[in-house]
Specification:
The complex is a heterodimer of chains A (617) and B (229).
Chain A (H helix, E strand, L loop, with lengths): L2 H8 L26 E7 L3 H4 L3 H11 L4 E7 L3 H10 L17 E5 L6 H10 L15 E5 L15 E3 L3 H17 L4 H8 L5 E2 L4 E5 L5 E6 L8 E2 L27 E4 L1 E2 L9 H5 L4 E2 L2 H15 L3 E5 L9 H15 L2 E3 L7 H11 L6 E6 L3 H7 L5 H14 L3 E8 L6 H21 L9 E8 L16 H16 L4 E5 L2 H11 L5 H10 L13 H10 L4 H5 L14 E2 L4 H12 L29
Parallel strand pairs in A: 1-2, 1-3, 3-4, 4-5, 9-19, 10-13, 13-14, 15-16, 16-17, 17-18
Antiparallel strand pairs in A: 5-6, 7-8, 11-12
Helix pairs in contact in A: 3-6, 5-17, 6-7, 10-11, 13-14, 14-15, 17-18
Chain B lengths: L1 E9 L8 H15 L15 E3 L8 E11 L5 H11 L4 E8 L7 H4 L2 E7 L9 H9 L4 E5 L6 E5 L4 E8 L5 E8 L8 H12 L9 E8 L11
Parallel strand pairs in B: 3-10
Antiparallel strand pairs in B: 1-3, 1-4, 2-3, 5-9, 5-10, 6-7, 8-9
Helix pairs in contact in B: 1-2
Chain lengths: 617, 229
């Protein structure tokens, strides 16, 4: 039976069959004649999540714009579909042409969060592709990793033939060109890896061998291949206005998490929050000009018919032309019945004006992230907002008629004490007091504060890459402490994230290559969709750690990053190690580092590329 | 304000999209081709468009209806052509008529619908005798989950069946044809009927086997929904 006939039989039996049919508006159909490189873009989560990811749309366009290259999409089948596929012997397939993944030339996974690793293994297994790079044969596809997690790819290093570090817009086409060449000269697998290892941003883990000390820390990372690069510097695209951006993104047939047009205003962030990996690894800030952004938005809305537009960046209000752009978008949005959504706003006067305009009477979704409860701790993490900023913002929100706000905090930040936790409750209490004051002194009313606490996970390539994560017990104690405090604050709700998943995330984030075995064992015993609370199986992970003779504490305590060689030492994010070190030292002393628009703070990225926003404020 | 009734088909893989997915799909298509729908007033304006009757996920149809209100008059064939220039493969507008205002909505007029059921190659259908015996019962009792709550209730679906027979389709393949109650007042679920019929006839039927197509929708007097006085 042919694959699509087999599929036809399964579709009536599974939930949301629309996930597996392809055929969306702007999905690409190419004549297979003349195709040299068949590329599979794999997102290791469900269709609805993967299709909401802008990077997929960008790289799909980049690759399909090339002659001789055909890029198709693959997602993780949901559990019901997986079960049926295994029963029927239906292999993992591409949505566009229903081709088995095994028949592709390359299979590129985007690694957006650590807890997707078991899904990667599961997808390879469903595709009948050998899990480990060293077991793959000449005819197997090359398995590629990219995205933020590839900045420390070591825990999954054995499963990938190579990683693409940094921006993919230029490196993926370069890889495809090298692939076409290689195919023409009929080279072997190893020779291809050797060729591309000389391209910028390509890390071939098989070319390196980690050597461990007795206590588990790294002694050195040795080269297996003499001409493998010393370090792998991330790829950086420099001109956003010239960078490819989809004007005809795929429009899903079924409802996905974000069903809207998206405009990436800029990449990178000038603020330098010390816990934030994205703020470090996506440096420097590169902006798209307002005219370019407006033009792309117009084209995108015309070609898709979307009725919502979202602006994407790490800190939307920092966009240089934000006032003009937002004013323009709000105006045209009203005219054309397109809703504008603006995540990551700072709560200043202009933002309120815009939000008020957009949301009108329907004031929902005001979210704000102070991250820490006291000025002291906010100085430590370099989240440069003051109590006054918070309260002024909230006063304005209340006066403009918002009935609820959501505040995000992180628990377990370095140097945190119970006083800092008290600070979180204090902020909620003070905001309620502002509300009562506005309400003419009457207590009661319908104003709601929702406080959400996530658990701090130390990430590689940040100034906090050396620090310990709180133990699950300590997290629990802190959660209970706060829950108790919040019980006494009328109008405020407190919620927190599961501690166990944060612990596993921390282990994987700073993990070394020995974790490959742990991930394999976890997957083998049933772990998948670990990022989904209802599927996460903590016991299996701990069992897998134990079976592999590894101590969770070694990774979460920060012991893993003591010494000169860290698991991610080969990866050069562009930010200097000395800078991270000095940021850590300043953190401990509670010293802020200014936004680099006020002047270069010396992170080192401008050794490689011009910083366009440096010292512009 | 101008009102139009669009007749369209939903075929192929698109049958795996839901009623709400289809609503969004049409909404985006109108926007893409620049047909100016009327928007509701209020805090959350939405375009005025509604389907005559939702189609279950997995069914195909050559007789679906969408009612729209536009801000200005359009030529009917222009509407058909521009929609078809932008709709994805699997949805096609077949016809469009302006409807005089005021009148009842298309949704409130639907009473009956024709369905056509195919089965995989070689799968047995009930014989004519079995069909007759099935229909000749005093009552055709099936149990179905009550709308609210979880308990099963038994209902008689006999008055909801107008026609039930096998026939040869255009391509010479055997199909089961039925005209049954459809609409907001009384609605017979096709699969409920199939389950009962195949059970009665002693023929096993798996959930994935029937391929169901809606062919047309009718008013109480038996005229197709598209006929406008």
């Amino acid at each position: 039976m042919k694959l699509d006939q087999q599929l036809e039989k399964l579709l009536p039996l599974v939930e949301k069959p629309g996930r597996y049919i392809g055929g969306e508006l702007h999905s690409v159909v190419k004549d297979e004649e003349g195709i040299v490189t068949r590329f599979g873009f794999a997102f290791p989560d469900t269709y609805e999540i993967g299709m909401s990811y802008l990077g997929l749309q960008i790289l799909y366009k980049v690759l399909n714009d090339m002659d001789g290259v055909y890029c198709e999409r693959l997602f993780t089948p949901a559990l019901d579909m997986e079960e049926k596929m295994r029963e029927e012997g239906l292999p993992l397939f591409t949505l566009e042409t229903k081709t088995p993944a095994k028949e592709l030339d390359m299979l590129g996974f985007t690694l957006q969060y650590e807890l997707c690793y078991t899904n990667v293994l599961n997808m390879l297994d469903l595709a009948a592709i050998p899990l480990k790079s060293c077991d793959r044969e000449e005819r197997d596809p090359f398995v590629i990793g990219g995205g933020p997690c590839s900045f420390n790819p070591e825990p999954v290093a054995e499963y990938f033939d190579f990683f693409v570090i940094g921006d993919g817009e230029e490196s993926l086409p370069a890889i495809c060109r090298a692939h076409a060449n290689w195919k023409e000269r009929q080279g072997n697998r190893n020779e291809f890896l050797s060729t591309i290892s000389k391209l910028p941003g390509i890390y071939v883990p098989g070319f390196y061998q980690p050597v461990y000390q007795k206590d588990g820390r790294l002694e050195s990372i040795n080269k297996n291949v003499p001409d493998a690069p010393e370090r792998i510097r991330k790829c950086i695209i420099s001109e956003m206005d010239e960078a490819p951006f989809p004007t005809k993104p795929i429009v899903p047939l079924i409802e996905v998490v974000h069903d809207r047009s998206v405009m990436e205003l800029f990449r990178g962030c000038t603020r330098g929050c010390r816990f934030c990996q994205a703020g470090m690894i996506y440096r420097p800030v590169r902006e798209r000009s307002k005219d370019c952004a407006l033009d792309l938005i117009e084209k995108q809305l015309c070609s898709t018919g979307h009725d919502e537009l979202s602006l994407l960046s790490l800190s939307t209000s920092d966009y240089s032309d934000f006032v003009d752009l937002a004013t323009e978008l709000v105006r045209t949005g009203k005219e054309k019945n397109v809703a504008i959504s603006l995540p990551s706003l700072r709560l200043d006067n202009f933002s309120f004006q815009v939000l008020n305009e957009i949301q009108g009477y329907k004031k929902t979704g005001l979210t704000f992230a102070p991250e820490a409860g006291t000025q002291r701790l906010r100085d430590v993490i370099n989240k440069c907002i003051s109590d006054e900023d918070i309260y002024n913002g909230m006063r304005q929100a209340i006066e403009l008629g918002w009935n609820s706000v959501k505040l995000y905090f992180m628990i377990g930040l370095p140097t945190e004490t119970f006083e800092d936790l008290d600070g979180i409750a204090e902020i909620a209490k003070n905001i309620m007091a502002i509300y009562y004051e506005h309400n003419g002194g009457r207590r009661g009313g319908k104003f709601q504060i929702n406080v959400s606490a996530s658990n701090f996970v130390p990430k590689p390539h940040t100034p906090f890459q050396w620090v310990a994560q709180d133990s699950p017990e300590l997290f629990r104690e802190k959660h209970h402490y706060l829950k108790d405090k919040f019980r006494k604050i009328k109008g405020a709700q407190f919620s927190y994230h599961g501690t166990e998943a944060s612990q596993i995330e921390a282990i994987l984030a700073r993990g070394d290559r020995r974790l490959s075995e742990v991930i394999y064992k976890a997957w083998k015993t049933g772990c998948k969709f670990d990022g989904w609370r209802e599927h996460f199986k903590y016991d299996k992970w701990i069992e897998a750690m134990n079976d592999s003779g590894l101590d969770p504490d070694f990774y979460t305590s920060g012991k893993v990053s003591e010494g000169d060689v860290l698991p991610w030492s080969l990866i050069d994010s562009g930010v200097d190690d000395a800078y991270l070190q000095s940021e850590w030292e300043k953190a401990v002393m509670g010293q802020q580092t200014a936004d680099c628009r006020e002047g270069c703070t010396g992170c080192g990225i401008n050794r490689y590329v011009r910083c366009e926003r440096e010292g512009t404020k | 304000m101008n009102r139009y009734l669009l007749k369209f088909e939903k075929t192929g893989q698109l049958r795996y999209t839901s009623h709400l997915d289809l609503l969004r799909l049409f909404r985006r298509t109108f926007k893409r081709v620049g047909i100016d729908l009327l928007y509701s007033q209020g805090f959350n304006p939405h375009p005025k468009m509604s389907f005559a009757q939702p189609l279950s996920l997995g069914y195909t149809s050559i007789g679906e209806y969408l009612e729209i209100e536009t801000r200005m008059p359009y030529n009917e064939s222009f509407l058909v052509d521009s929609m078809n220039s932008s709709l994805p493969y699997g949805v096609k507008v077949l016809d469009c008529r302006e409807i005089p205002d005021p009148r009842k909505t298309a949704a409130s007029l639907v009473r009956w619908a024709d369905y056509k059921v195919r089965l995989p190659e070689g799968h047995a259908f009930p014989t004519d005798l079995q069909l007759r015996l099935f229909l000749d019962q005093d009552a055709i009792l099936v149990s179905k989950r009550a709308k609210k709550g979880k308990e099963m209730v038994e209902i008689d679906i006999k008055p909801m069946i107008h026609e039930l027979q096998t026939a040869f389709d255009d391509d010479g393949k055997l199909v089961l044809k039925m005209k049954i109650r459809t609409g907001s007042e009384s609605n017979l679920n096709t699969e409920l009927l199939l389950g009962s019929l195949f059970d009665f006839s002693g023929i096993p039927l798996e959930k994935y086997e029937p391929q169901i197509m809606r062919v047309e929708m009718y008013r109480e007097d038996g005229r197709p929904l598209s006929s406008i006085e």
